[in-house]
Amino acid sequence: MTAQPGRALLHLAAALDRQGVHDAAVLEESVRLAEIGALDFVTLGDSFARPGLDALAVLARLAPATRRIGLVPTVTTTHTVPFHVQAAVATLDGVSRGRAGWHIDVSTTEGEARLFGRRHAAPADALWREAGEAADLAAKLWDSWEDDAVIRDEATGRFVDRDKLHHVDFEGSAFAVRGPSTAPRPPQGHPVRVVDATERHARGTAARYADVALVRFAGPAQARAVRDELRTAAAESGRDPDGLRVLAGLSVDLGAGERAAEPGHGGGGPRQTAQGPLYRGGPVDLAELIAAWHRADAVDGFHLTPVEPHRDLERLVNGTVPLLQHRGLFRTFYPGSTLREHLGLARPANQYAVTGGAS
Question: What is the pTM of this model?
């Protein structure tokens, strides 16, 4: 099916988060199911504030079990080393052949700070400025190898063309890095950067550096207002606002049967809760809610968090997704092999190769 005239197809993503799961194999069934539904990507949360598996390592483990779906782990920029983080995300992009993303987050609590003992907790606005610097540095380090820097010339014994490696000479408020990276340029050029822009502290970083911004509001008017704000700020920072996708974050409980409700709000939701907006109803009314927000041009798609992971993801993929496909609002197959292709985002040019930056 094709999109409605003048409207782009929706983007859909899902969270794999499952409390108390300590076996990556348990998540494999879920990510395979999401791929059957042609979802753009899955996210896997991570935090120093709670025990659990390392999200980036888990998705690297799951990459060979999938072929098309994007894989987006949460990795904080607080208490971590930006040089190591960017190399790890680049590696995930390599092992997944161009399907990696990075959900950028910050660690705000004193308890998290005590785990490392290097500094106290800082205000959220300062941490998000630091996160923006980490995102900026990552892009520079990903570009520090030109695409054809790896030559593997067995006759001469040369692995890389050193003229195509570049020092980034980056100095931020909390770190300085000379570069180049230890990892070649990722297949996507830049893995997709995701920022939750619901809180105002994060919006500057999202507007300047994110490829995907998440917003968690219960009504389309609020979501559209923040989307417009982010696009305006992106343009003011020198970006093309069409290079930013804004997805509505929504928890979904699909265990309830279909129930009549006001148009566009199946099951009487979404309702604002302490954890964010929650939809409770059936797959059909969820499809109607998503379609209503699409008609309102409120967001570019949805990031859905199943309340009961296996049940709700299965009902989403087997119920809601086919209905959206039938309406011509969501694709029936992946348009390419990389996450950027799924999202309709161009592969970034290498800033050093284009500008001839000094090595």
Answer: 0.93
